[in-house]
Structure formats: C-alpha cells, structure tokens
Amino acid sequence: MTVTQIQNIFQKLFTRMSVSVSLAPIGVRGMKVLDREKFLRNVSVPVLEVTEDKLAKTTPIVKPYFLKLENFKPVQNYVTEDNLRRKRIFFNPEKIKCWSDIAENHRLTLKNYDVDESNFTFVTLKLTYDNFKFDIIFKAVLPENEEIVSSFSQIGHIIHLNLREHLFEYRYLIGQVLLDKIKTCRTVVNKSNIIDNTYRNFKMEVIAGEEDFLVTVKENRCNFQLDFSKVYWNPRLCKEHERILEFLKPEDVLFDVFCGVGPFSIPAAKRKCQVFANDLNPDSFKWLEHNAKSNKIDMTRLKLYNQDGKDFICTIFKDYVTDIFNGKKILKNEAKIHITMNLPALAVEFLNSFNALLSIEDLSSNIKCDIIVYVYCFAVGEDPVKISKEKVIENIGYDISKDIIDVFNVRTVSPKKEMMRVTFKLSKEVLFSKKLVQNDEPPIKKLCV
C-alpha cells in the first residue's frame, strides 16, 4: 500500500466523522482594505477518478455534485504515480462528504460503468481570492447579522450602489471587489438615495476604478448615450418602459412630461407615434437631442422641449388638445393621446395643471379621443394601491375614481416603499371643471386703514 493510499484512507475516515466542509473564506471578517493573500486556504475535497473512456458516461450522472467555483474547472486532467492518464471530477464538499452521500440510483448507474467507491478519494485543493464570487467574499468580510451588498445596478460600464450607513466604512473594499469580479465594470460609484428635486441628480462618489461617467446602454432596440453623473437613468425601469410602449399604437400621440434622455419618447417615435418630449434638466435635453439623432428618428414625429413640467402641460399640451377639440387637428385611425409622468417623487403635484386647463369656449364638438395618463408615485405604507389612488385624487383636485384604469406596482424601492403607476382617463369633467384647488399665489393683503 502506497503512502498516498494510506493518506486517502485517513482522509475518508476523518471526513465521515467531520461536519460539512465550508468553502467560504476564513479569517477575513472586518477587512476594510482588500488583501487578496488572506483569502488563501486549503480545503479537502472529494473527487472521482475515472479513465478518459468512461468520462462521457460518468459526467452526466454526477453533474449535480460538481464543485463550482470562479476560475475553476470541475473536470481536470490527472496523471497517476504509475504515469497513467486519468480524469478527476471534483465534487462540492458541502454536498458530498462520503461515497454514500451520492444518491443510490446514481451509485448503481456508476457501478454499471465499473465506477465505484474505489474511484472515490479526497485531494487537497488550494483556494485563492480568484476562486470566490463577490457575494461569498461580502458574506465573509462584512459585519455578521447585518444587511450586506445584496443588489446593485449596472449602467454600461458603471456599477451603481446605494450603501447603507453600516457599510460605508467598507465602501472602498466593496468597490474593488466588484471591479475585480465583474468583467464589464470599469467604474463603481456609491450614490445616496437623495435625488435633487430639480434635475433628478444623485450625489455620487467614485469608490473604485476610472472616473468615467459617459455610458451607452441599449433598451427597446434603441441606444442611449448619457452622462450618468448629470442625468437620471435607472436600468430597473427597462421592463416598465417596455410595458408602456406596448400600449402605444402607430399614429397615437405621446406627451412625455419628464422624459429624461428619452426611454419612452425615442422608441415611441420609432414606432411611428407623434411624440412631444420634455425635460427641465438641460443635460437631459442635450442627451435627448443626441439620442434622437443617433437612433435616426424622423424629427417630424418627435418634438423636443426644455421646460418646466407645468409650463409644458399648460402650453404645448393645452394648445394641441384645443386644436383637436376644435377640429383643427384630426387624429388618424381613432388614435389615442397618452401622457407619461415618470417623476415618482413629484409627478402627482403636477396633476393639478390639468384641472380646468381648458375653458368651455375651447369645446366645439364632443371629445372623441381618449386621453390616458400614466403617473408615477412612491407609496409608503401597508396599502400602496390605496395610498397611490388617494395621492392622485387629492392632487388632481377631482374625484376620478371611476376613471382609474389600473394601479400597478412597478418595483419595490425599500421595505414598505413601492414605486407605483396609476393609469387613468383624463376626462372632460377635469379638463373643463372649475378649479377645486386654490391659486398658487397668495391673496393680496388688504391695506389697513
């Protein structure tokens, strides 16, 4: 009996008596400056040694037990002491501690191919920083029993994090790990949850990589370029953009009140809708123009504006629908008018602009086209649907309960905070009503005599 065989016997005995082997890094808890050398460790792992001619039959059977690590092949070449070529199939020690841990039906099938416990042994495997995924590293390094980095957004080559306060002192390590592990990443930023209400910008700190904020993203068959430090873009809204675009038909009209760099407007124009796109942020407007050109949009179908949302509604939208109601403009094929208001922190506050927007003189015929509004808001509380409806009704200044088509949960922002979309028909009762909300200007003070 060789020394290697004796070692294998003792390894098998020890493994049967031991608890499940953990593959996680050890001794790195609380690390704030990344030290890759400290992730080195040796682990005893089970392997199945088979001849090359048996590999094709054996592999499909034992695939559920494979050892899956970063930069590691679970099937490797091996040369025995007798200079014979073999294949080693590495098993996950967290699943397999001994031969009997392999399911009985799998063991019986292996035996039919002359593979049994004699082919089963243990080897010592050297693990390095390169073998661990970023989530495993974060679990080993960051504080126990606290929320770790569970999710992030990637916009082009930029990874965007919203780190909680207890992780702030680890931010440079977190950034470097993500830079190492995600091949398409060149920049990692930590951004606060506070958005500037005027231009929807975040406060931002580069915590790893290059200070390069110019990105290109692809969405709904369009390419969007933008400066991520100056304009708003959330990749988690891609599906929502797609949902709204599905509601639009060729020859429909879209008024995009807070359009950003054009994720609603540019694909809509490409689908042959007539689009009026507006954003107050001059940087968003600049990239909106750029993206319209780069996507070869027919500019007769896309009109761009750099106005406050209220001014856009009270001028551009008002003039258009007045012409429709007076018969000066005719919508083709019974097209609809759609209004998107994607500024969830503030959009509902602009709904009052629709209340009594038109005077009765503007109406010379019945309103025949549907006007559909998609307004977004944040709902904090136990019943986000009810909260969203109440916000819309309160801000529009009219009970539109009967006109609400849908209340949709777009995404969860944080515990008990949801981003909601309320879809409703904008009725003539709202457009031609007397304002139920008082004028924004304070009353003139009376002179005291």
Automatic annotation (TrEMBL):
<dbReference type="InterPro" id="IPR056743">
    <property type="entry name" value="TRM5-TYW2-like_MTfase"/>
</dbReference>
<keyword id="KW-0819">tRNA processing</keyword>
<dbReference type="InterPro" id="IPR056744">
    <property type="entry name" value="TRM5/TYW2-like_N"/>
</dbReference>
<comment type="subunit">
    <text>Monomer.</text>
</comment>
<feature type="binding site">
    <location>
        <position position="241"/>
    </location>
    <ligand>
        <name>S-adenosyl-L-methionine</name>
    </ligand>
</feature>
<dbReference type="GO" id="GO:0052906">
    <property type="term" value="F:tRNA (guanine(37)-N1)-methyltransferase activity"/>
</dbReference>
<dbReference type="GO" id="GO:0070901">
    <property type="term" value="P:mitochondrial tRNA methylation"/>
</dbReference>
<dbReference type="GO" id="GO:0002939">
    <property type="term" value="P:tRNA N1-guanine methylation"/>
</dbReference>
<dbReference type="InterPro" id="IPR025792">
    <property type="entry name" value="tRNA_Gua_MeTrfase_euk"/>
</dbReference>
<keyword id="KW-0963">Cytoplasm</keyword>
<comment type="function">
    <text>Involved in mitochondrial tRNA methylation. Specifically methylates the N1 position of guanosine-37 in various tRNAs. Methylation is not dependent on the nature of the nucleoside 5' of the target nucleoside. This is the first step in the biosynthesis of wybutosine (yW), a modified base adjacent to the anticodon of tRNAs and required for accurate decoding.</text>
</comment>
<keyword id="KW-0539">Nucleus</keyword>
<protein>
    <recommendedName>
        <fullName>tRNA (guanine(37)-N1)-methyltransferase</fullName>
        <ecNumber>2.1.1.228</ecNumber>
    </recommendedName>
</protein>
<dbReference type="GO" id="GO:0005759">
    <property type="term" value="C:mitochondrial matrix"/>
</dbReference>
<comment type="similarity">
    <text>Belongs to the TRM5 / TYW2 family.</text>
</comment>
<dbReference type="GO" id="GO:0005634">
    <property type="term" value="C:nucleus"/>
</dbReference>
<comment type="function">
    <text>Specifically methylates the N1 position of guanosine-37 in various cytoplasmic and mitochondrial tRNAs. Methylation is not dependent on the nature of the nucleoside 5' of the target nucleoside. This is the first step in the biosynthesis of wybutosine (yW), a modified base adjacent to the anticodon of tRNAs and required for accurate decoding.</text>
</comment>
<keyword id="KW-0496">Mitochondrion</keyword>
<dbReference type="InterPro" id="IPR029063">
    <property type="entry name" value="SAM-dependent_MTases_sf"/>
</dbReference>
<keyword id="KW-0808">Transferase</keyword>
<feature type="domain" description="SAM-dependent methyltransferase TRM5/TYW2-type">
    <location>
        <begin position="152"/>
        <end position="428"/>
    </location>
</feature>
<dbReference type="Pfam" id="PF25133">
    <property type="entry name" value="TYW2_N_2"/>
</dbReference>
<dbReference type="Pfam" id="PF02475">
    <property type="entry name" value="TRM5-TYW2_MTfase"/>
</dbReference>
<keyword id="KW-0489">Methyltransferase</keyword>
<feature type="binding site">
    <location>
        <begin position="308"/>
        <end position="309"/>
    </location>
    <ligand>
        <name>S-adenosyl-L-methionine</name>
    </ligand>
</feature>
<keyword id="KW-0949">S-adenosyl-L-methionine</keyword>
<feature type="binding site">
    <location>
        <position position="342"/>
    </location>
    <ligand>
        <name>S-adenosyl-L-methionine</name>
    </ligand>
</feature>
<feature type="binding site">
    <location>
        <begin position="279"/>
        <end position="280"/>
    </location>
    <ligand>
        <name>S-adenosyl-L-methionine</name>
    </ligand>
</feature>
<comment type="similarity">
    <text>Belongs to the class I-like SAM-binding methyltransferase superfamily. TRM5/TYW2 family.</text>
</comment>
<dbReference type="InterPro" id="IPR030382">
    <property type="entry name" value="MeTrfase_TRM5/TYW2"/>
</dbReference>
